[in-house]
């Protein structure tokens, strides 16, 4: 009976690796089978141990814990460094923390005292492997104190599952890199002046326009480490990681807006992330969920650029073009005639824009559009 159950778990991880199922659907049964609070797959940049992505399944009340881990506590996770550096067990070998960390250490360690107890976790069993030369993957089970460590039979089952997971993740990485070669032919991103990246929820870069490649080469704010998009500033990297994680499983068009003010800069830069679900984007960006990342620099992009207005202020394309037309000196009547719509319709769009920006009159809106920092400061709301 247990053997048949492990067979089902193996099929689940292969389904997730080939895109037939989500990683949540694959990892939830793993957590239940081993009576774990959570089953986790984390991907890291091998060069600097930066967290690239995290997949998890298990207790539904732990989603807050995943976000807290990404935002802050992964930096305190002493187990992670031991596993990634292979200090205690070689890569591919199993690490069971109770065999390496005594109770005295646990009693004085911030991660064990201030993070794990809040989410009902105490023990971990995990292993690392490298699905690609530039990244490491950690598979782990987080176990409750009253559940205790894995017994001998459970370890044998986990070892079998772990071997299949290693192969599945290698296949997943090969498939993703092959798909990226096809997606690189998309021309849509390359028509925009703003730096734009098309990434998946592991931050794997599937496409980038010329401005994005130039930005990544300068590494002013964002860079590409291997195939992954990362932020060069620590706080922004943490925010970017959390923002991408929060977009997982969200409806098409869900967005996150981040800001970062470089040292000595008069105005902040804005990073806009928009989720593209394949079934609602005509499959134009591939067969899996993608995140469109756009960098807006008020010094380089006109404040009344329609795409910037639409993205950062959450305006419809029509509302953005009405705002742009007004900023360029067109009257409501002229815009109505040019678009073949009623004057009342254009006024309605204009009123919506004014509400969004916080302007009282049309001339106030125009002033804000031309005085960029007032407009850009309204974003992220």
Would you give an account of this structure?
- By secondary structure, this protein is an alpha+beta fold.
- The chain folds into three domains: 2-178, Transcription factor LuxR-like, autoinducer-binding domain (Beta-Lactamase, 2-Layer Sandwich); 184-301, Beta-Lactamase (2-Layer Sandwich); 303-381, Orthogonal Bundle (Arc Repressor Mutant, subunit A), CATH 1.10.10.
- It contains 15 helices and twelve strands.
- The strands form three sheets. Strands 2-1-5-4-3 form a five-stranded antiparallel sheet, sandwiched between helices. Strands 7-6-12-11-10 form a five-stranded antiparallel sheet, with helices on both faces. The chain has a two-stranded antiparallel ribbon with strand order 8-9.
- Strand 4 (123-132) and strand 5 form a beta hairpin.
- The longest helix is centred in the middle third of the chain and has 32 residues, at 152-183.
- It is elongated.
- Residues 312-369 form the HTH luxR-type domain.
- This is HTH luxR-type domain-containing protein.
- GO terms for molecular function: DNA binding.
């Amino acid at each position: 009976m247990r053997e048949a159950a492990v067979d089902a778990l193996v099929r689940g991880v292969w389904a997730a690796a080939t895109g037939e199922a989500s990683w949540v659907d694959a990892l939830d049964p793993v957590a239940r089978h081993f009576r774990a609070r959570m089953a986790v797959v984390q991907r890291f940049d091998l060069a600097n141990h930066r967290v690239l992505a995290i997949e998890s399944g298990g207790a539904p009340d732990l989603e807050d814990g995943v976000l807290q881990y990404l935002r802050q506590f992964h930096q305190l996770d002493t187990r992670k460094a031991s596993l990634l550096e292979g200090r205690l067990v070689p890569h591919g070998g199993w690490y069971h923390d109770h065999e390496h960390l005594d109770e005295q250490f646990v009693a004085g360690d911030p991660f064990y005292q201030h993070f794990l107890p809040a989410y009902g976790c105490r023990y971990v069993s995990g292993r690392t492997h490298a699905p690609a030369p530039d990244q490491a993957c950690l598979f782990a089970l987080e176990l409750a104190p009253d559940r205790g460590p894995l017994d001998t039979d459970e370890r044998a089952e986990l070892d079998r599952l772990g071997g299949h997971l290693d192969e599945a993740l290698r296949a997943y990485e090969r498939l993703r890199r092959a798909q990226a070669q096809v997606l690189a032919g998309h021309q849509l991103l390359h028509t925009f002046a703003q730096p734009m990246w098309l990434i998946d929820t592991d931050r794997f870069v599937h496409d980038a326009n010329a401005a994005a490649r130039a930005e990544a080469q300068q590494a002013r704010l964002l860079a590409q480490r291997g195939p992954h998009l990362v932020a060069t500033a620590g706080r922004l990297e943490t925010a970017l990681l959390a923002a991408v994680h929060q977009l997982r499983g969200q409806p098409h068009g869900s967005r996150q807006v981040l800001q970062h003010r470089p040292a000595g800069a008069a105005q902040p830069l804005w990073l806009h992330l928009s989720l593209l679900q394949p079934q609602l984007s005509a499959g134009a960006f591939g067969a899996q969920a993608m995140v469109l990342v756009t960098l807006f620099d008020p010094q380089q992009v006109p404040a009344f650029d329609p795409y910037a207005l639409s993205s950062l202020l959450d305006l419809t394309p029509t509302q953005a073009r009405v705002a742009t037309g007004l900023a360029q000196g067109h009257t409501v009547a002229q815009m109505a005639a040019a678009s073949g719509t009623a004057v009342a319709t254009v006024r309605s769009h204009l009123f919506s824009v004014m509400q969004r920006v916080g302007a009282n009159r049309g001339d106030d809106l125009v002033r804000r559009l031309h005085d960029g920092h007032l407009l850009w400061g309204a974003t992220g709301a």
